[in-house]
């Protein structure tokens, strides 16, 4: 009887452990709508895989991150991606990188990566960087001035930014914990949504005059 109780308890423990360790796969794209008929399916969560026997060195290679990006734009920054779109061999590996160039006073405006934590290293220049915690932590700003060789982490999903406060160009390299981190630039998403979000709603949400909101929507 005692052995039966032991085996029953052990079985329940194993079952509980297996349930506790179960998890859904991390999303690798914005949306992946379920479909009942497989023949109508187009996408998988990520990319389809090549036969491993057909893999070539070029599948794992990208050149050009040594070359500066064009910062001649209204924000004065440029991003060069090294994710699964540029390096097919990154598929399923959960990592990617970017090079970011900043003109003097250039900025990578407030944005978020819905699928990745980011670790940024400054190669040249001086950047003011930071992220904002969630509502539960009172939207606290965590910010710091970075110089050449400094490293800073932006936790997954949190709004963050970088601003070149130096008088010369700045360069940074960042690694992200997803093959396809995604990016949501806050101003573009809110004021540049297509179709537009009702300006009366945004005016109340941001405590702005509705004409100001309409002006902002026209800019994005």
UniProtKB/TrEMBL annotation:
Domain Cupin type-1 stretches: 63-214
CDD domains recorded: cupin_OxOx (cd02241)
Superkingdom field: Eukaryota
Keyword Secreted: yes
UniProt signal peptide: 1-22
Gene Ontology molecular function: any one: manganese ion binding
GO cellular component terms listed in the entry, alphabetical order: apoplast
Disulfide-bond pairs as recorded: 32-49
Residues that hold oxalate according to the record: 108, 113, 118
Keywords: Apoplast, Disulfide bond, Glycoprotein, Manganese, Metal-binding, Secreted, Signal
Predominant cellular place of this UniProt entry's protein: secreted
Family of this protein: Belongs to the germin family.
Descriptive protein name: Germin-like protein
Species: Citrus x changshan-huyou
């Amino acid at each position: 009887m005692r052995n039966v109780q032991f085996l029953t308890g052990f079985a329940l423990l194993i079952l509980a452990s297996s349930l506790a360790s179960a998890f859904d796969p991390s999303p690798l794209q914005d949306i992946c709508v379920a479909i009942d008929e497989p023949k109508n399916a187009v996408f998988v969560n990520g990319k389809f895989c090549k036969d491993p026997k057909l893999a070539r060195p070029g599948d794992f290679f990208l050149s050009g991150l040594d070359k500066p990006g064009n910062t001649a734009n209204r924000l004065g920054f440029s991003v060069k991606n090294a994710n699964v779109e540029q390096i097919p061999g990154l598929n399923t590996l959960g990592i990617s990188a970017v090079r970011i160039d900043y003109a003097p006073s250039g900025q990578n405006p407030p944005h978020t990566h819905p699928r990745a934590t980011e670790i940024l290293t400054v190669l040249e220049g001086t950047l003011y960087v930071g992220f904002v915690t969630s509502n539960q932590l009172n939207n606290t700003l965590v910010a710091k001035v970075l110089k050449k060789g400094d490293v800073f982490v932006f936790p997954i999903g949190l709004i963050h930014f970088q601003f070149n406060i130096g008088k010369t160009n700045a360069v940074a390299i960042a690694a992200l914990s997803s093959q396809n981190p995604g990016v949501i630039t806050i101003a573009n998403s809110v004021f540049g949504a297509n179709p537009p979000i009702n300006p009366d709603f945004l005016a109340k949400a941001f405590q702005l005059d509705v004409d100001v909101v309409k002006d902002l929507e026209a800019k994005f």
